[in-house]
Amino acid sequence: MAAPFPMKILPRFPMVDKVLNKRQASEYCAREKAYMSKNGNKHGTANGSPMPSSAKMDRPQPAPQNMKQLVLGKDCDYDRELKRLQIELVKMQEWIRGRGLKVVVIFEGRDAAGKGGAIKRITQSLNPRVCRVVALSTPTEREATQWYFQRYVAHLPAAGELVLFDRSWYNRAGVEHVMGFCTDQEYMEFLHSCPEFERMLVRAGIILIKYWFSVSDEEQERRFQDRMKDPTKRWKLSPMDLQSRVRWAQYSRAKDEMFAVTDIKQAPWHVVNAEDKKCARLNVIRHLLSLISYEDLTPEPIKLPPLDKTKYVRPPIADQNFIPEVYQR
Q1: Does 26 reside within a domain?
Q2: Is residue 93 part of a domain?
Q3: Which residues share a beta bridge with 271?
Q4: pLDDT, tens only, 267-317
Q5: From the CB of residue 125, how many other CB atoms can be counted at a distance below 10 Å?
Q6: For residue 290, what are the domain limits?
Q7: pTM of the model
Q8: Looking at the 3D structure of the chain, how many domains does it have?
Q9: Which helix (H) or strand (E) covers residue 166, if one does?
Q10: How far is CA 128 from the centre of its chain?
């Protein structure tokens, strides 16, 4: 039986090849080369377990050598640390709103790498009028005829807003390129335009932060199996997710080419080791907080005014339509 998606051999692009040949001089490769030459593949995850070799992952960014690592369950409790960081997120939110900042955070990465879970924990305690999530579906017929970045521009923040993109314009460099949903010319135009587009956003006063969630093929398979068994998670699996397994190497190459061109000084990529979901959530929240210099603008405690006890005759309570009380205490 024929495969639902024809296999596509990704062509070589001279411009991308030229950039890739110069990657040794780039900041991204310099960081990685210096670390790998010093430590090899013997770095570990935040919970103390060994990290898979970089051949099986998307080259996770190592933790700074001078940063103390905390082991969950030993040095700190996950729930308590998450609560502490969420309180800091509220302070950061008030700073963004009070100072009129415009912040965009992009979440990209492998399927089932934990992007959605991290976004959920970030937004859990925030004001939805200040912090909103953008997760766009497939472009409509009309949107497909627009300038590629146009439908994303409509969701950029105004002053005092924080926008989290659950997938973003980088679909063009990832799934669209690998699956053949865009032409080679459209792909090359994206690689040419994206860095300038992002520099333009930064010049316009937008704080642009980009995260790539990296996970090994073994951990991705385990999470896929978990989704297939759990009725509440089965909706997360799509034909595109399954193709990410078949085309693992092609996605890896597409990611490397994307990083080579779009890992710019004004908006660098930050790689999140997502082998452990809980560690990844705490690490990305802590890192996000470190990128925005904020102060505590928590307002003074509010004193409740006295309750208005003016008496009047209310309509019979039996006239109201109450829902059935199936659950009671």
Answers
A1: no
A2: yes
A3: 212
A4: 999 999 999 999 999 999 999 999 999 999 888 889 999 999 898 898 999
A5: 15
A6: 77-138+155-297
A7: 0.79
A8: 1
A9: strand 161-166
A10: 17
